[in-house]
Each structure stands twice: as C-alpha cells, then as structure tokens.
Amino acid sequence: MQPLASSPPATRDTTPADTCHVDVTTVAFFFDLDGTLAPLAPRPDAVRLPLDTANVLASLFHRACGAIAVVSGRAIDDIDGLLAPLRVPAAGLHGAEIRHADGERVRAEGYAVDAERIASMIAPLHALVAQHPGLLLENKGSALALHYRGAPELASVARDTMRALAELHAERFVLQPGKLVFELRARHVSKGRAITTLLQEAPFAGRTPLFAGDDLTDEAGFAEVNALGGITIKIGDGETCARHRLPSPEALTAWLLTLPPASPPPPSKENGA
C-alpha cells in the first residue's frame, strides 16, 4: 500500500513564537495561506483574508524589502485573488508552480501538467460526490482535493478512494492528507523545495527563512527551514516538527504586528558620531 505523502511528524516541544527574535531586514518570510494567514472556512471558495492581516502583510512586504512569499496548496491565481491588491512571490499547488520576485511564472523542475490523468481521476470522484453530497471535490487543474469537512464521518471513504487512485497513478501522483481533506498532488514537488528555490534569489537570498503553516502539508516546509537554521511556526494544535507555535491565524497577525521596525543605520562620522 502506498504511504501517505506526509506521515505524522515526530512529537517535539514547541515554544511560543514571541520567544524568537525576528529582524525584518534579515528574515525571509514564507507563509501558508488557508489556516495560517486566513481562517479556514467550510468551503475553499468561502475563505477570506481578514482586512487586518492584509494590512499587516502589505506593511511587512515594504519593511522586508519584498522578502515575503506565500507557499500554498492553492493555485497562484487563487492566491492573488485572496491577497489582492497585494501581489507577492508565490509557490502554488504545493510548489508545482512558482512565481519569482521578478514576476516570472515557472513550473517546478521535472513537473508537467498531466491533464489526461487528472481527467481520468475526476470521473470516479464525481460519482462518489454524487453518492455522498457531504463531500466536496476541488479541481485545481493539476491536483485534486476531496474535502470531507461537511461530512467528517466519511473520512475513511474519502481516504480509501483517494488512496486507491494514488496507487493507480503512483508514478506521477501522491496522496497528501490535510485538515479534513485528502489531495492527489504531483509526486516530485513540496513546499520545502519551493522555499529552497525562492531562497536562491533576491530578495530572499542571504536571509534567514521563516515559515508559518498549519497543516500536514506544511511539514516538508518546516523540515527544510529547520535544516537551514531558520524559524518555523506551527499555527494551531497537532504534532509538528516546527519549533514554535501560535494558536490561530488571528494570533499570527497579532504577532506580526509586534515585530520591531528596522533598526536605523548608525550615524555617519560626518554627522558627528
């Protein structure tokens, strides 16, 4: 049987995020979206970015000289719709697509959209959703997500169906569990790889990475950032390899508001220093 893309991480103690020092001039900020910047909603299309969070992100984008990216399971177009009018570098579909700081959009190395396979997997999933109206199928174009938030009792049905499809298409797709969702995503992509890619270019290069996320889909990002000596923040409950924790998206926004402003440059000798 094919293993899940992200097994539950080893339990470790986390500390409150306000115990870590963050200098906005030397940190590269990476954020998950749903459940991290924006509260979860019954349906993906009902998620909204709170105004306070949008204002904080816009301010932080300026203070960090643009070193902010969203790394999400959503497509980049969806990310843009939720953050508008702010537009930031982004990795969509768990890193399958990346928009660099210069605006160029590329697909992850070795990744290609397999529309024929996606279409072959949609048919049985449509039939399942018709049989169980509490399930919701989300077609992301190059990934498929089966949500059971509206029918938690159907968790095993959703898992078994998606696992069977993952095993049938194992050379291209992997089963990714999440909060009340199972997703079929491209095998050779991850949020960790996406973060590493963005860290190789301006304005992220040379900065300490910080990644905040809330779900199993974010654990690969936590692991990569930990390995790089960065700062990792788990939003909400649950086992994680992140080193810090905040209880909710609202708490993340409040914490970002507390980050001190950039330190002014030292006075020059010409000014009498």
Automatic annotation (TrEMBL):
The protein's Enzyme Commission number: 3.1.3.12
Pfam families for the chain: Trehalose_PPase
Annotated CDD domains: HAD_TPP
Pathway: Glycan biosynthesis; trehalose biosynthesis
Keyword DNA-binding: no
GO terms assigned for molecular function: metal ion binding; trehalose-phosphatase activity
Reaction catalysed by this enzyme: alpha,alpha-trehalose 6-phosphate + H2O = alpha,alpha-trehalose + phosphate
Broad class of enzyme this protein falls into: hydrolase
Swiss-Prot/TrEMBL keywords: Hydrolase, Magnesium, Metal-binding
Source species, domain of life: Bacteria
UniProt function note: Removes the phosphate from trehalose 6-phosphate to produce free trehalose.
Stated name of the protein: Trehalose 6-phosphate phosphatase
Organism field: Pandoraea cepalis
Top-level taxonomy: Bacteria, Pseudomonadati, Pseudomonadota, Betaproteobacteria, Burkholderiales
